[in-house]
Every structure is written in structure tokens, then in C-alpha cells.
Design goal:
- The strands form 10 sheets. Strands 2, 3, 4, 5, 10, 21 and 22 form a 7-stranded mixed sheet that branches.
- By secondary structure, the protein is α+β, with helices and mostly antiparallel strands.
- The chain is built from 21 helices and 33 strands.
- A hairpin with a 2-residue loop joins strand 29 and strand 30.
- The protein folds into 3 domains: about 190 residues, Penicillin-binding protein 2a (Domain 2), CATH 3.90.1310.10; about 350 residues, Beta-lactamase (3-Layer(aba) Sandwich), CATH 3.40.710.10; about 100 residues, Trypsin Inhibitor V, Chain A (2-Layer Sandwich), CATH 3.30.10.20.
- The longest helix is centred in the N-terminal third of the chain and has 40 residues.
């Protein structure tokens, strides 16, 4: 029995061993099969997956085109190269790495300021050791380290290339710079919203967005290898598809006018604590926009370009009395009235259905001419005129507005142009007061640029031109496309009406609501506008002020509109708020544009001592003046600043070049030149009188102390 039992146990053990052995053999075969399957049958699949993770074709962004000012030289926006710094710590030889790692860590810590030198050294060494270990074990050989995600500019890149380890370059020091182009505006805030932007979601504003198709170019494609920190390093191969740079665009903007417009607008907005403001300056004959400034109030109380109020929906408002120009043209074209005809405005209050229309003057203007009604901006007069001539045919008035080009978009080059909102007689919301209220600038919504284009037509002998802000698209010196302002309306009115309304617009400035901006040097023609703002269906004590016109009035070269929204304080009318900004801009533009100045009467300078007043100033300007007047002039040709001496019916130039560190001699100079010379020496200038400098409190040649005050006296 025992032997039988022993035999059974032995058989059982042998069976178990055999089963276990069979299982192990089968398992081994399965493992070998899986290895073979992965290696040969599915190898290409997993190799591709690894490649996709570590090596991939990626888009190479094209260099974006530049945006230039109207002179074709001043850059308003460009793309500058910036770089992300990375290193392969396994490339430097051990001797180079050990010798330079301490110094490099200190320099990196000082530059980036985010880690201590010890931390930088540990990071560099850890990656180097880990990579060397991986290479010994047959794993991936290299791991690249992005040292810092802060971008460095080209000058900083050149500096870093001289640092320890880095100075050995890509092959000897493992240095890697990944280039990234960033948009840069050299004039910083100047025309910032007009230039605009593009974000990563392909959304944006301004010229950058409107002309993105031309500026962006065509992206390329190249092979990249993934590096530590999530970055990618380009691998140069024959399959690389190069990118094509974007086109440049040449705007119509005049940098000097833009600067003048923004500075004046910013100063007056702050003075009135207004909500926002905008200025547009346009060349009359061409429709080219020379300046477009938009400033909105920030929560901090400062002003910045955050929205294009001149063009966009938020700037589309009830224009107020500037719209009276359209109404008076419609009246003159449709009826037999004459500006010399009289109209009784009574006490300045007119009841119209359940509403009351008031004039700005308490007690009203009484009996005045239609010309005066326009000059003084009498609401009552216009409501009466519209009631008498268009009350039974409001559609006719709308047809005039339509023919003026006021009811449809201008087709402006920048995206986001506001569509005018002008009710038709059959539209919902039309009522008995719609017609008279529209005639004085209410119950309509229109952008400042649209109003300016209409006034520009009056300055341009009745021809309404589509405004433009981009005149050329270029690739280097080659013109790809060019733009000119299209004619929207060949004649907005008859020649007779044009002559009458131009006289009215001049009268507004000479003795009407804007007489505070009249001057003796050149004539301005224009119209003030003040409209109460609507809130919750009711008009408030908050105002929208504007002034729009052109200059010089007798030979118009530029038109301009100024809008200031919700000014605070006692001055809340267009004449007191917006018109002074127009005057400031016009004065500075006039002073800089010699072609607008009245031609001097031709004079024969044939007697000794009979000369125009030429004393001291900038050599090139004084020489130009003498040449234009036919006056012989001789002397220096390599000095910026000179003084004139008359001799034998000619002018002799003598040097007045300021010496470094000394107070310049500005006697005989005009204030503009004196300010330029003295302020460049760091002196604080105050002055009294007008004309040329006859006295300066700090004597010429004395030491110029930066920040010290100097007083000038001027006389004719």
C-alpha cells in the first residue's frame, strides 16, 4: 500500500512540474513573439509615433510686413527678432563645462533674476549628468534645456554669445537661440489704435487686422526636434519649405500732424475731464487721412488709444449742429430761400407737439437772417424752416441726405466702419418730431469720419471723396497695389449753393459761434456742434461736442473734425471745448506748411538796406527765404545756426553755432528757434512779448546749467 501511495505522489509531482514547465515555455514563446511583433511587424508604427513626439514638421511663421507713415521712411510698426535661450549641456567638453559653469550661472542669475547662481549651476549639471547616463544606457542621447522663457533681444543675444561656455557656439558650447518675431511700434503710443494689433486667435483691430492678408505673408514648413521645457529646435533638411515675408503697407499718416493732433487732444481731454475724444485730419483734394487720434479715459483717469471712435460703432452718435450743413444745403437746393432772408426766432423757445426746441441763447435771437441763424446755430430757425418747406414731403429731405452720401457707409479701408443710422419716413419710430429734430442733428447716428467727409466735399468744390488711410502696398521698392480716394459724389450741390454755404461756414468763425478761433494769418471755415446725450430715453445734461471745418478757407488744403464727449465743468459747448483743439492743430499745421503761407508781394531789392527782416536762425531756412526773394547771400555752408549781416545789397552769413556746455546766443531769433536751441541745452525757458528775441537773462557763453531758468524778451 505504501509503495502504491508513493508511486501516486511521484506521478502527481511530475505532472505538476511538466505543466509548470509547459506554461513557462509557452510564456517565453509569447514574449518572444510579442518582441518580434513589436520589432518587425509593428515597428514602423511605434517608430513613427516616437518620431511624432520628438520630431515633427511645424509651421515656420513668415516675417510680417512693415507699416510706414506717409513719407515712406518713418516706421509705424515692424517685426523685431527676439530669442528664447536654450542649451545642450552634453555638447561642451568636460574641461570647458567645468571651467565655465560657475561664471555662466552667475551671469544667468544676474540677467534673468529668477534663480540663484547655485540653482542655475545645479540645473545645468543635473541635465548634463542625466544625459550622459542616458547615453551610456543606450537611451535617448540628448535633452535640451530651455534656460528661461523670457525672450531676449538681438543686442542681448550678442552679449550672451560672449559668455563662458556660450562663446564656443552651437557645436562647441551647446548654445541654442530659438528666434521669435514680435511686433514693435517705434512711436509707441502714437496712432496705436489706428495701427492696431493681431492676437493669436487671428482677431484684432486697426490696420494690422484690416490688412492682415497683405502683412502676414505666407508661412513655411520645417522639421523641428522637441527640446526640454517644451520648446522646439529646427533641424535643417532639404524638405524645408521657406516662408514668404509679408508685404509692407504705406499709410497716408503724417507723423508730425499725428503728434500734434494727439498732444492737443490729450491736453484738452484732461482739462475737461471728458469721456473720450477723437481727431481726424484729411487732405481736401485727395481724401488722404493725415492724422487720426482716438483717446479714451481709463479707470486710472489717464487717456489712451483703446478704441477707434472716429470710425467704429461706439463713436457713432447724434452729431448735433454740425448736421445743419446738410439741412441748409437741402433747403437752398429745394426752395427759393436766400441766406439774406429774415426769420423770426422769437424768444428762442418753440413748442413742437409735446416737445420743446430751445436755442442756446437765453431769450433767443429775435429776428435774424438765415445766414445768421446758421452762424449762431439757431435750432428754432432750422425747425421753422424745415416745418415750412419739408413738413409735407419728408421723403424729399431724406432723398437729399441720400444724395449727399450720408445714408450709406463710406467703404473705408479699415474694417469695423459704423453704418449710418438715419430714419426714413416709413421706418418704425418715425414721428411728427423726427423731421425737425433730424434737421438739427438729433434722431440720427453717424460717425465723425462720415461727417468730416461731407464737410471735406464742401472744401473740395462740392466733390465728395472716399477717405483713404493706405495708399500703397509694397514689396521692398516694388509697388504691388496702390489706392486713391474714389469719388462718392461728383457734386453734392449746385455751384451757387456751394458758394453760399462756404460763406456761411466762414461766417461761423468770423463772427458766429466759433469766433474765438478766428485769426489774422489764415481763414478757417467750419461749424460747431453740441448735442445732449440720450440716456434711458431722456436727454441729459451730458453733451457731445464737436467742431468740423477746413483751412485755409479761401484755398482749402486740410479738413479736420474734433470730437470731445461728455466734457465736465462750465464749458460744455463745441465752441469752447472742441473748436480750440481744431485751432491748435490748424495753427501748427499752418506753421509747418510753407506752401499754405500767403505769397509775399514781389519786391525789387535794389537799394542798400532795403531787406526783409533776416537776422538769426536756422541756416537752411534763412537761405531758402533769401533765394525765394532773389536776395544774394554768401558765407558759411556747414553751420546749422547763423546770424545775418547785410553788405552791398546782399546777406553775409556768420556762425551762431552753440558751443557745448555754454548758453547759446539767441538774440534776433524767432521764438520757435530760440526754444529749440535753449531747451536742447536743458534750460527751462519763459518768455514775454512777441516777435524776435531782444534780451536773454543768461548771457551768451556762460555755463549752461541743466534745469536752470532763462527768460527771453521778444519785440517786433
Amino acid at each position: 500500500m505504501q509503495s502504491i501511495f508513493a508511486v501516486n505522489i511521484k506521478k502527481s509531482i511530475l505532472l505538476r512540474v511538466r505543466v509548470a514547465f509547459l506554461v513557462m515555455v509557452l510564456g517565453a514563446f509569447a514574449i518572444v513573439w510579442r518582441i518580434a511583433d513589436l520589432q518587425w511587424m509593428e515597428g514602423s508604427k511605434w517608430h513613427k509615433a516616437a518620431q511624432d513626439k520628438m520630431v515633427r514638421y511645424r509651421q515656420v511663421k513668415a516675417t510680417r510686413g512693415n507699416i510706414y507713415a506717409g513719407d515712406g521712411k518713418s516706421l509705424m510698426a515692424t517685426s523685431l527678432p527676439f530669442y528664447k535661450l536654450a542649451i545642450d549641456p552634453t555638447i561642451p567638453e568636460k574641461k570647458v563645462f567645468e571651467k565655465g559653469v560657475d561664471s555662466l550661472s552667475i551671469l544667468l542669475s544676474r540677467f534673468f533674476g529668477d534663480r540663484t547662481p547655485t540653482e542655475y549651476k545645479r540645473r545645468l549639471k543635473d541635465v548634463r549628468v542625466a544625459n550622459e547616463e542616458a547615453r551610456r544606457k543606450g537611451r535617448r542621447e540628448r535633452e535640451y534645456l530651455v534656460i528661461n522663457h523670457k525672450l531676449v533681444n538681438y543686442q542681448e543675444k550678442k552679449m550672451m554669445e560672449s559668455w563662458p561656455i556660450f562663446r564656443h557656439g552651437r557645436m562647441g558650447g551647446g548654445l541654442i537661440f530659438e528666434r521669435m518675431d514680435l511686433r514693435y511700434q517705434p512711436f509707441r503710443h502714437l496712432a496705436r489704435r489706428t495701427i492696431g494689433f493681431m492676437n493669436q486667435g487671428n482677431e484684432g483691430a486697426g490696420l494690422e487686422y484690416s490688412f492682415n492678408g497683405q502683412l502676414s505673408g505666407k508661412d513655411g514648413e520645417a522639421l523641428f526636434q522637441r527640446i526640454a521645457g517644451g520648446g522646439w529646435k529646427p533641424i535643417r533638411t532639404a524638405t524645408e519649405v521657406p516662408s514668404e515675408p509679408g508685404y509692407d503697407i504705406l499709410t497716408t499718416i503724417d507723423i508730425n500732424m499725428q503728434d500734434v493732433a494727439e498732444a492737443s487732444l490729450a491736453r484738452h481731454l484732461a482739462d475737461h475731464q471728458a469721456n473720450y475724444g477723437c481727431v481726424v485730419v484729411m487732405e481736401v483734394a485727395t481724401g488722404e487721412i493725415k492724422a487720426m487720434a482716438n483717446l479714451g479715459r481709463l479707470p486710472s483717469g489717464q487717456y489712451a488709444e483703446t478704441y477707434n471712435y472716429a470710425v467704429g460703432q461706439q463713436g457713432r452718435t447724434e452729431p448735433g449742429s454740425t448736421f445743419k450743413l446738410a439741412s441748409i444745403i437741402a433747403l437752398l437746393e429745394e426752395t427759393q430761400i436766400d441766406p439774406r432772408d429774415s426769420i423770426n426766432t422769437g424768444n428762442g423757445v418753440l413748442q413742437y407737439y409735446d416737445r420743446e426746441m430751445r436755442d442756446s441763447k437765453n431769450g433767443g435771437f429775435g429776428k435774424i437772417t438765415i445766414q445768421q441763424a446758421f452762424e449762431f446755430s439757431s435750432n428754432v430757425a432750422f425747425v421753422k424752416l424745415m416745418r415750412d418747406h419739408f413738413n409735407t414731403k419728408p421723403q424729399r429731405y431724406f432723398e437729399y441726405l441720400e444724395s449727399f452720401g450720408l445714408t450709406r457707409p463710406l467703404g473705408f479701408q479699415m474694417l469695423g466702419e459704423a453704418v449710418p443710422v438715419i430714419r426714413r419716413p416709413n421706418d418704425p419710430g418715425w414721428s411728427g418730431i423726427s423731421l425737425p429734430w433730424m434737421s438739427v442733428g438729433y434722431e440720427t447716428r453717424i460717425s465723425p469720419l462720415h461727417i468730416l467727409s461731407f464737410y471735406n466735399a464742401i472744401a473740395n468744390n462740392g466733390t465728395m471723396i472716399q477717405p483713404i488711410i493706405v495708399k500703397e502696398i509694397r514689396m521692398e521698392d516694388r509697388v504691388i497695389d496702390s489706392f486713391r480716394g474714389k469719388v462718392i459724389n461728383e457734386k453734392v450741390c449746385s455751384g451757387e449753393t456751394l458758394k453760399k454755404v462756404r460763406k456761411m461756414l466762414e461766417g461761423v468763425v468770423s463772427h458766429g459761434t466759433a469766433k474765438n478761433i478766428a485769426n489774422n494769418d489764415y481763414k478757417i471755415a467750419g461749424k460747431t456742434g453740441t448735442s445732449q446725450k440720450l440716456k434711458n430715453g431722456r436727454y441729459t445734461k451730458s453733451y457731445y461736442t464737436s467742431f468740423v471745418g477746413y483751412f485755409p478757407a479761401d484755398q482749402p488744403k486740410y479738413s479736420c473734425i474734433v470730437v470731445i464727449d461728455d466734457p465736465k465743468g462750465i464749458r460744455q459747448y463745441g465752441a469752447d471745448v472742441a473748436a480750440p483743439v481744431f485751432k491748435e492743430i490748424a495753427d501748427k499745421v499752418y506753421a509747418q506748411d510753407i506752401q499754405m503761407h500767403k505769397r509775399m508781394a514781389a519786391t525789387k531789392w535794389d537799394q542798400e538796406g532795403v531787406f526783409p527782416t533776416i537776422r538769426a536762425g536756422h541756416f537752411s531756412e534763412l537761405r531758402y527765404l533769401c533765394n525765394e526773394l532773389g536776395i544774394s547771400n554768401h558765407g558759411l555752408h556747414d553751420q546749422d545756426w547763423v546770424v545775418a549781416r547785410t553788405s552791398n545789397n546782399s546777406v553775409q552769413w556768420h556762425s551762431r553755432q552753440p558751443r557745448p556746455g555754454q548758453v547759446p546766443d539767441v538774440s534776433g531769433m524767432l521764438l520757435r528757434d530760440a526754444l529749440y536751441v535753449l531747451e536742447n541745452r536743458g534750460l527751462r525757458v519763459s518768455f514775454a512779448g512777441r516777435g524776435r528775441v531782444v534780451y536773454q537773462s543768461q548771457p551768451p557763453g556762460s555755463q549752461a546749467l541743466k534745469g536752470s531758468s532763462i527768460t527771453l524778451k521778444l519785440a517786433e
